[in-house]
Design goal:
The chain has helices at about 5, 15-25, 30-35, 50-55, 75-95, 105-120, 125-130, 175-200, 285-290, 355-360, 375-380, and strands at about 70-75, 95-100, 140-145, 160, 215-225, 235-240, 245-250, 255-260, 265-270, 275-280, 305, 315-320, 335, 355. The protein has about 400 residues and is an alpha+beta fold. The protein has a single domain, classed as Sandwich (Jelly Rolls). Helix 5 links the parallel strand 1 (about 70-75) and strand 2. The radius of gyration is 21 Å and the shape is globular. InterPro entries: DIOX_N (IPR026992), IPNS-like_FE2OG_OXY (IPR044861), IPNS-like_sf (IPR027443), Oxoglu/Fe-dep_dioxygenase_dom (IPR005123). This is Fe2OG dioxygenase domain-containing protein.
């Protein structure tokens, strides 16, 4: 292929990219709108450079990582609490991700949520475009390329972001998925409270300190990943860390989610298990609770994860983020750090305090540098940029 043809696949400058993003947003049709239009190649706005595609790993390795994501059974929790707590502690410390089965959220509730979420995304553009917005204060908004403003390429995904109301009523949500979302949010909140208690026990917290494990469900993202004509040059969700304390994820049977295993220095598939929910630790929990020697291997890891694009069928997921309530007016000023009661001369703090705005800067790894989680690395009290 001639050089000019290769060059034409990518933007010449940031201004061209910004203009393309503006024009794409004006369609309010999302990625699915592009697919429905009959495209046969990935548009520039979503196309990764060869270097970035290689760094992200847009195709599966021919030699899959032998490690597996732990599956934790919550059946008979009251009589098995100590066993479950230890399994959660080990999984959160070693990988930062695990799957839960027999967790109390009915399969029918999860299936209804997925069905109505799909109905929202697959309805005609004119029926959903009223929700299309990048206004972060809007309580229910439809966007595409989530996280794109932090990178040069959009993710191959459409998302309905929902900020759940504090009450059971969720009247601000789209009618087409309001009923299932209301029930699902209620069940996930209940599971979040239970998981909060289990994580607190895993961290050895006392009743006076376990309040720091947030049971506040701040956001629920209904993700829809349309089939991609060139999945090797696009990414459904680029490698990233969640800012949340923890995230509960419902995924369909299509697959494509992977988590990075530090010990193996490789990506591990997160298989779709019928009736299971995926839990991953976020940066907020790692900062607040990562006091040296608190855990057996010194840390509770936030999980770096990604999602492949695929050319065959749509993929769906619902990601529920638990973290302290978000006040956009204090994002840069309110500080979070290790719990004072857990810091001592014997167990000194590992991280400095940080604002939520600073933690959000750690969503995406420094793939061009040497740090996989650069913001957390720079928050370490013993940080030395010459040696990290």
């Amino acid at each position: 292929m001639a050089a000019s043809s290769v060059d034409s696949l990518y933007f010449d400058n940031a201004a061209d990219s910004e203009e393309a993003a503006r024009l794409f947003d004006e369609t309010k049709g999302g990625v699915k709108g592009l697919v429905d239009s009959g495209i046969t190649t990935v548009p520039k706005l979503f196309r990764l450079s060869p270097q970035t595609a290689s760094q992200y790993g847009t195709t599966r390795s021919k030699s899959p990582c032998p490690f597996a994501v732990p599956v934790i059974d919550m059946k008979d929790l009251e009589s098995r609490r100590a066993v479950v707590v230890e399994e959660i502690r080990r999984a959160a410390a070693e990988l930062g991700m695990f799957q839960l089965v027999n967790h109390g959220v009915e399969v029918s509730v999860m299936e209804d949520m997925m069905a109505e979420a799909r109905q929202f995304h697959e309805q005609p553009t004119e029926l959903k475009q009223g929700y299309y917005s990048r206004d972060v204060t809007q309580k229910a908004r439809f966007i595409s390329g989530y996280g794109a403003l932090r990178r040069s390429s959009f993710n191959w995904v459409d998302t309905l972001l929902m900020t759940p109301a504090p009450s059971d009523a969720q009247d601000h949500l789209p009618i087409i998925c309001r009923d299932s979302a209301t029930i699902f949010i209620g069940r996930i909140r209940e599971l979040g409270e239970t998981l909060s208690q289990l994580l607190s026990l895993a961290l050895g917290l006392t009743p006076s300190t376990n309040e720091f494990i947030s049971t506040n469900l701040t956001t629920a993202n209904l993700n829809y990943y349309p089939p991609c004509p060139e999945p090797e040059v696009a990414i459904a969700a680029n490698p990233h860390f969640d800012t949340s304390t923890f995230t509960i994820l419902l995924q369909d049977q299509v697959g494509g989610l992977q988590v990075f295993h530090e010990g193996a220095a490789d990506w591990v598939d997160v298989p779709s298990l019928h009736g299971a929910l995926v839990v991953n630790i976020g940066n907020m929990l790692q900062v607040i609770f990562n006091c040296s020697q608190l855990l057996s291997n010194n840390k509770m890891k936030s999980a770096e994860h990604k999602v492949f694009a695929n050319a065959i069928v749509p993929r769906q997921s619902v990601a529920c983020f638990f973290m302290p309530p978000i006040d956009f007016s204090t994002m840069s000023t309110k500080m979070y750090g290790p719990i004072k009661e857990l810091v001592s001369e014997k167990y000194p703090a590992v991280y400095r305090e940080a604002s939520l705005a600073a933690l959000w800067g750690s969503l995406y790894p420094d793939l061009e540098g040497s740090l996989r989680n650069p913001v957390l690395a720079r928050l370490r009290i013993a940080y030395d940029k010459e040696v990290v």
